[in-house]
């Protein structure tokens, strides 16, 4: 894939490539940190094009830049500003190399993206109302999979509350995930991969599957294929509740996803409270003999809203966050499933 030369690009002055810098600084990928680098400019350019054709006027953030191969492709597209957040200090000198030729357009943050508040990277005055177009901001990231999943859950929570960086509007994200995870994001009712992730992802975001990167394109190559997705928060959510509340109901309901949902929905309630199980099905209108992975997002909406009504009435119900066994209930409920007074947490 070639860069489209009709669009404004800025050549980076001749300098060592990311792979030469890795050799110069004698930095090796840390396998235990899943550091797999994308050193092919054809792929990094294609990755960046997934964000926007033209980055002029955009404020961009890259999470986990490593030695900077994606960073260079971003800078070539002339964004207004680029902030990179990298945890591993060994990459800082290499990133400084890139920043030095960026005409003061690049800021390096040495930090952990799971703790860093990304809203600092974007100018407040360019924020856009949630129901309008996205603001001129983009986040890119090729992160280790053990970081990208907790991060997307954190972002789903922020999207559901329109806080964190999403208080500035519907900021698009261009991210890599294991191909298998991308398939779960997109899985529809009845698909084998449909799971808890599918319901929340589709509730909060439009997810555009851009392309697959073969494991062999990374240095060192991971054992799995990698999918690139563009994720844009939706203007309105079918289930308009905080992510954690939705995830609680979906997690339980999807627990045994090929069984009738009455078996899994029951695990949200104390034993001997079949009255509450009957109530959630009655209120939601969901058929208890539907298999969990046959439920549509709108069924989950009705289950979530019905659960909210019940949990508002029954003390301690929300304290529970385990599914399957009923061990937890001993702390919060008596043998008949009535809430105990719990004074100390
Ligand atoms: N973006 C580079 C590329 O595509 O070649 C590097 C990708 S490598 C898979 C992931 C990068 O994320 C590494 O540089 C790693 O140090 C960084 N990283 C891992 N955990 C991080 C965290 N919690 N916060 C910020 N960066 C992190």
TrEMBL record:
Keyword Transmembrane belongs to the record: no
Molecular function GO terms recorded: mitochondrial transcription factor activity; RNA binding; rRNA (adenine-N6,N6-)-dimethyltransferase activity
One BP term from GO: transcription initiation at mitochondrial promoter
Keyword S-adenosyl-L-methionine: yes
This enzyme's EC code(s): 2.1.1.-
GO cellular component: mitochondrial matrix
Annotated localization: Mitochondrion
Domain named Ribosomal RNA adenine methylase transferase N-terminal: residues: 43-235
Entry-linked InterPro entries: KsgA/Erm (IPR001737), rRNA_Ade_diMease-like_C (IPR023165), rRNA_Ade_methylase_Trfase_N (IPR020598), SAM-dependent_MTases_sf (IPR029063)
Binding-site positions, S-adenosyl-L-methionine: 36, 38, 64, 86, 112, 142
UniProt KW keywords: Methyltransferase, Mitochondrion, RNA-binding, rRNA processing, S-adenosyl-L-methionine, Transcription, Transcription regulation, Transferase, Transit peptide
Superkingdom of this protein's organism: Eukaryota
Class of enzymatic activity (EC top level): transferase
UniProt-listed SUPFAM superfamilies: S-adenosyl-L-methionine-dependent methyltransferases (SSF53335)
Main location: mitochondrion
Family statement drawn from the similarity comment of this UniProt entry: Belongs to the class I-like SAM-binding methyltransferase superfamily. rRNA adenine N(6)-methyltransferase family.
Alphabetical list of PANTHER family matching this protein: DIMETHYLADENOSINE TRANSFERASE, DIMETHYLADENOSINE TRANSFERASE 1, MITOCHONDRIAL
Protein name, entry field: rRNA adenine N(6)-methyltransferase
Protein's organism: Ciona intestinalis
């Amino acid at each position: 894939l070639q860069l489209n030369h009709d669009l404004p690009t800025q050549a980076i002055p001749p300098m060592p490539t990311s792979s030469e810098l890795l050799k110069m600084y004698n930095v090796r990928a840390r396998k235990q940190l899943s550091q797999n680098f994308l050193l092919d400019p054809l792929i990094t350019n294609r990755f960046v094009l997934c964000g926007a054709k033209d980055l002029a006027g955009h404020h961009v953030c890259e999470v986990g830049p490593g030695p900077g191969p994606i960073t260079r492709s971003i800078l070539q597209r002339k964004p207004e500003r680029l902030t990179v957040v990298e945890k591993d200090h060994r990459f800082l000198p290499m990133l400084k190399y890139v920043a030095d030729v960026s005409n003061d357009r690049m800021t390096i943050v040495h930090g952990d993206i799971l703790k860093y508040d990304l809203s600092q990277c974007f100018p407040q005055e360019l924020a856009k109302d949630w129901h309008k177009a996205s603001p001129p901001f983009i986040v890119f990231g090729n992160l280790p999979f053990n970081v990208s999943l907790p991060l997307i859950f954190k972002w789903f929570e922020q999207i559901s509350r329109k806080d964190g960086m999403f208080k500035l509007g519907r900021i698009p994200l261009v991210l890599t995930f294991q191909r298998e995870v991308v398939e779960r994001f997109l899985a529809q009712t009845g698909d084998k991969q449909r799971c808890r992730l599918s319901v929340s992802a589709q509730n909060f975001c439009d997810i555009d599957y851009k392309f697959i990167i073969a494991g062999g394109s990374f240095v060192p190559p991971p054992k799995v294929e990698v999918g690139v997705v563009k994720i844009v928060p939706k203007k309105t959510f079918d289930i308009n509740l905080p992510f954690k509340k939705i995830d609680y109901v979906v997690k339980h309901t999807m627990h045994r996803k090929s069984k009738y949902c009455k078996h899994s929905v029951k695990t949200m309630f104390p034993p001997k409270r079949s009255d509450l199980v009957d109530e959630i099905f009655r209120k939601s209108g969901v058929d208890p003999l539907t298999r969990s992975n046959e439920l549509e997002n709108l069924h989950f909406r009705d289950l979530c809203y019905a659960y909210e009504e019940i949990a508002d009435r029954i003390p301690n119900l929300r304290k529970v966050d385990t599914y399957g066994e009923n061990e937890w209930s001993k702390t919060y409920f008596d043998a008949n499933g009535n809430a105990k007074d719990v004074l100390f947490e």
